Amino acid sequence: MTRVLGRLGGWCARHGRIVLVLWVIAAAALMGSSLVFPSPTSNDASIPGTDAQRAHDLMKEGFGSGYATGGTVQLLVYSAGGPLIDDARKRAVEQSMDRLREMPHVEQVETPFRRGGISSNLQIGLITVRMQGHDTSKLAQTTQALSKAADPARAAGLEVVPADSSTPADKEIKTGPSEIIGVICALLVLVFAFGTLVAAVIPIFAAMISVASGLGVIGLLGWVVDMPKQAGIMATMIGLGVGIDYALFLLSRHRRLLADGVPVVESVRRTVASSGGAVVFAGGTVIIALSALLLAGFPLLATLGWVTGISVVAAVLTSVTLVPALLGVLGHRVNALKVPFLRGSGSSGTGWAGLGVWVARRPWRVLLASALVLGALAAPALALKLGSLDEGYGTQGSESRRAYELMATGFGPGSNGPLIVVAELPSKVADAKDPIVDNLAREVADVDGVAHVSEPKVNTSGRSVLLQVVTDYAPSDDRAAEVVRDVRAIALPGVQVHVGGKVAGLTDAGDRMAERTPLVIGVVVLLSALLLLLAFRAPVVAIKAAVMNLVSLGAAFGALAMVFSIGLGSGLVGMDPPVSSSFVQTVFFSVPIESYVPLMLFAVLFGLSMDYEVFLLTAVRQAYLRHGDNGRAVAEGLGSTGRVITSAALIMVAVFVAFIAYPDPMVKTFGVGLAVAIAVDATIIRGFLVPATMVLLGRLNWWCPRWLDRILPNLSVEGHEEEEPVPARPERVKAGV
98 near 170, Cβ under 8 Å? Predict the structure, then answer.
């Protein structure tokens, strides 16, 4: 692999302008095509084989399109000045309903002046609009158009807001200032690291090209597969981080070689042959970790995994082709436009080298202290609270949260996430008055936690019955999931009871995640360790690296629990507590974490943490092969990579922290978890824990049984390319990072 990458890097350096033009054209074409032909997005959280999915499928059979997903839109009408049944207000509501009936695809409009349609204080009413033949992928636009049709009610002084049955994670996530903030922060770190503007811009430019290319591919794939709405933001977040980091690692080595007098093209060749191999392996671990999400049994999560992997592939490709091309085109001008009062100091001979020596002299004390600190950081993870998000956790003042609060006030907290009970009957019934249907409705109503059961509706075949059930609990309340399980447990002769709806779907998702999590974790750890074994031919190093990554994950989950589950800091990341909350409730505002988020976070973090492990181990291995002194090799490896890894980590942390500003709770969760994990991984773990353990293990680090050494392919990530001696150049330029 070293020879292949070396030839590729040399060719790209010699034909830099061609490679640069091809990448720009490809990125522009892919991104432009996805913008001109935007693909539909879908947050279909269905899980094949679950009870909620069976209920959803039965809803499509003879109950009318209004009961299918996206077939119903609800508008809440609120009168602050008095009851809605006042003549003038009632007339305004009815005028709005007449306009709604004239809207395209509207099949039925149910008046709020019906049983169950108006609150007990008569000030909050619910207009239900059943749709047919509309584009369910454009439900947000359809809802806004229907809301606009209710303007006569607004003209009469009434408040009208559309109720939203989705979750905050279902909202359309659009790019915004977070990307710009992240890029600016990354640029500042690079300027301080390199001391020159030209060198600082190269990783940014390469990352932007890779992100544009990846997003273009993802956008076009949306025409052939269901693409989650979070796909673009996840790909951007991860793509920016790894794209800048990979280019940074290559650029730092290239500048050191230039400073030693190596000609430009030869320097690029050596850089791609060595550091390029580390980039390929590091990217491979991220892709393996994300691909393992296909085993989770949750299509939405699996799609998010491989879609994010596309951005990582794009980052690796641009790093080993576009970056060498840019370095070849720029030549020694890579060090142009020096920033006054800043100069990038070499990575060797810095404080990191001194730290490496210090750790090597007292490994046991460093190991114990690091373990205690990491244990303290991970301890809050025991309080991690998984659950479902509802609009009660949406942005304060947003239309969706206002509708949620009105719905809860007027019709009870459970009205924001009603259960859809669909029962298969043993024989055909004529109508909803059949004794078996009536018996089923009574059994459902008697379940603890059920507040209201709608009138049963029998499908056209007479073999299924549907009831809408409102519980006493908000969708995010754990007790709502218990009601789902209790209703499913109803036993009537020949009747099969299924429960669907948002709460039931999320309950099934949580159960599936709990069932598949051990499998996914096992596969990720095993395959990542195997990849490291292929890279370094050292079983102990491979196993140790996997364990260290799990340690950094503990710190990340501890931070998530502290911020979201315990609630200390949830307000700082933009989570708004209810208006009526007390001071203590505001300070400790607990927010549940979606059940699938920890597994996704595990895959992403495990892969990203392995990046720094690969780069550190590569440097240690190279030093060990030169002189065979393990303690000295560890100190030299830490000294030569510490500054680079720290700069890379700062960039990733800056990018991830910037994304916390997004209103979407899922994005906030990822931003906090990724930022904390990367910060801990690049400092405590790579700076102290890993060097200490490697010093203690001694020659065992690189031990490999002879039988295993014979069967392992020689992939050589360390970069043992033949390096011809090059005379020193008089115009030697001092390296930056």
Answer: no
Q: Is 252 helix (H, G, I), strand (E, B) or coil?
A: helix
CATH number of 399-507: 3.30.70.330
Nearest by Cα to 140 from 56, 227, 229, 77: 229
Distances (CA, A) of 587 to 385, 387, 391: 17, 20, 20
- Closest-CA residue to 197 (of 19, 342, 348): 342
CATH superfamily of domain region 1-38+178-344? Multidrug efflux transporter AcrB transmembrane domain (1.20.1640.10)
Q: What is the pLDDT of residues 368-427, one digit of tens each?
A: 999 999 889 889 888 888 777 777 676 676 787 888 888 888 888 888 888 999 999 888
Q: Is the pLDDT of residue 26 over 90?
A: yes
Distance of alpha carbon 348 from alpha carbon 248, whole angstroms: 16
Higher pLDDT, 40 or 55: 55
Query: How far is the CA of 1 from the CAs of 405, 556, 625, 718, in angstroms?
Result: 59, 34, 18, 10
Count the neighbouring beta carbons within 10 Å of the beta carbon of residue 706.
6
pLDDT score, position 729: 40
- Report the C-alpha dihedral over residues 528, 532, 537, 542, rounded to 10 degrees: -70
Q: What six digits make up the tokens of 14?
A: 């010699």
Q: Rounded CA gap, 547 and 529, in Å? A: 9
Residue for token pair 């065992």: 700
**Hey, CA dihedral for 293, 297, 301, 302, is it positive or negative?**
positive
Average pLDDT over residues 87-101: 91
In this prediction, residue 67 has a pLDDT band, given cuts at 50, 70 and 90, of: low
Cα distance between residue 163 and residue 281, in whole Å:
48
Does this chain's domain 1-38+178-344 share its CATH topology with 399-507? no
Please check the confidence at residue 58 and state whether its pLDDT lies above 80: yes
Q: State whether residue 550 is helix, strand or coil.
A: helix
